[in-house]
Structure to design on (155 residues):
């Protein structure tokens, strides 16, 4: 997970993900979704960095190197990843490479997607300030959001 829980698939599969999440909840159940928005800039996470940072994550004998790249378009970010295994002390061997593409949905588009599958929006927060986001405005420019939605009880 790269700072969010949504947007890793095609538009159709992302919509299917929301449908499955809705189906899995009991009536009254809460759904929490954390997402970056198209207004994201890598400096949101690293305000002191002038260029995209490189992050190293260690896991047992493996080293995962993730290069964070600039957005390739307004609504797509790509993270390149390389997995290395330390077979001998200080010597790393490339095991695998992958590229992760994340779709960043405009706020009102994501609101519509949630409502289209049946969710009712409780709150949408700006993660940086935990302020409520005005979901009626087209010009909302928060970088990262947390959505709280629920599955309505049957009437």
């Amino acid at each position: 997970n790269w700072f969010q829980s949504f947007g890793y698939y095609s538009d159709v599969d992302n919509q299917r993900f929301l449908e499955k999440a809705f189906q899995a909840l009991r009536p009254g159940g809460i759904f929490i979704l954390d997402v970056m928005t198209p207004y994201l800039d890598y400096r949101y996470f690293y305000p002191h960095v002038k260029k995209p940072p490189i992050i190293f994550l260690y896991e047992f004998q493996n080293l995962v190197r993730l290069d964070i790249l600039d957005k390739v378009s307004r609504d797509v970010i790509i993270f390149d990843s390389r997995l290395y295994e330390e077979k001998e002390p200080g010597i790393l061997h490339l095991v695998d490479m992958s590229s992760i593409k994340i779709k960043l949905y405009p706020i009102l588009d994501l609101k519509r997607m949630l409502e289209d599958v049946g969710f009712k929006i409780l709150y949408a927060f700006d993660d940086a300030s935990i302020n409520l986001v005005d979901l009626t405005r087209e010009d909302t420019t928060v970088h990262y959001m947390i959505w709280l939605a629920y599955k309505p009880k049957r009437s």
